[in-house]
Design brief:
The chain has 212 residues and is α+β, with helices and mostly antiparallel strands. 32% of the residues lie in helices and 25% in strands. The protein has 7 helices and 10 strands. It has helices spanning 47-63, 80-88, 101-116, 121-126, 133-141, 144-147, 156-161; strands at residues 2-7, 16-22, 28-33, 70-74, 92-96, 167-172, 178-179, 186-187, 192-199, 203-209.
């Protein structure tokens, strides 16, 4: 049986991981939909759905998928166009909830991909919802010029929260254990730090090294 799932479609940063798994041979294949498919031109036209089909086509070749194989497809919207394509090509498929090995593996794949983009490993390791929109947004604003390029800027939520006015001041670091959201290194208590403030769904305060 062949299973198809996705991960990262709800993450503000990065593209989306599409994965395929052959439950008999234990082969796993994945590709990432590039972030450019989530820009202001491509996202409204849902070009990422077409790219998902291309990834599945490549995966079928690698996994030697035939018309006789049973295929399970995640119920999510990422595969809306794929389902039509599978029907047109007369594949034996059904929509279902993907659990087990593929779900765990593709989520891990996306986490590793996000870390490769610079996303803090500690966010993923110690946070229950590491890819929560406003949590990621704080990380983006800490190095806006660089990190905004990693975002799904075609989203309506980015239009609402992605260009907020910010206030920068220089203050003494409180007696708290924080890390700089730009470089990731520790901010020493009672030292001078750069403080960035903005208001999204709530007031946000970001502490940075003076030179970061």
């Amino acid at each position: 049986m062949i299973q198809i799932d996705d991960s990262g479609s709800g993450s503000l940063i990065g593209g989306t991981c599409i994965g395929l798994y052959n439950t008999e041979t234990k082969q796993y294949y994945y590709e990432i939909i590039p972030i450019k498919y989530y820009n202001k031109n491509n996202f409204p036209r849902k070009k990422y759905l077409d790219y998902a089909i291309d990834i599945v086509k490549h995966g079928f070749q690698v996994l030697s998928v035939s018309k006789n194989d049973t295929i399970e497809v995640c119920r999510g919207y990422m595969f809306d166009k794929l389902r039509n394509w599978l029907n047109e090509k007369n594949y034996n498929w059904k929509s279902t909830q993907i659990t087990g090995y593929l779900q765990d593996t593709i989520e891990k794949t996306f986490e590793e991909y996000a870390i490769s983009l610079g996303f803090p490993k500690q966010y993923i390791k110690y946070t229950r919802y590491p890819f929560h929109f406003h949590r990621i947004l704080r990380w983006v604003y800490a190095d806006y010029h660089k990190r905004s390029k990693l975002c799904k800027v075609g989203w309506k939520s980015w239009e609402k929260y992605g260009k907020l006015p910010t206030q920068v001041t220089y203050e003494t670091m409180p007696d708290k254990c924080y890390s700089c959201l730009k470089c990731g290194k520790t901010l020493e208590p009672f030292t001078q730090v750069k403080v960035l403030r903005y208001v999204s769904n709530k007031p946000n305060t970001i502490y940075l090294h003076v030179n970061c």
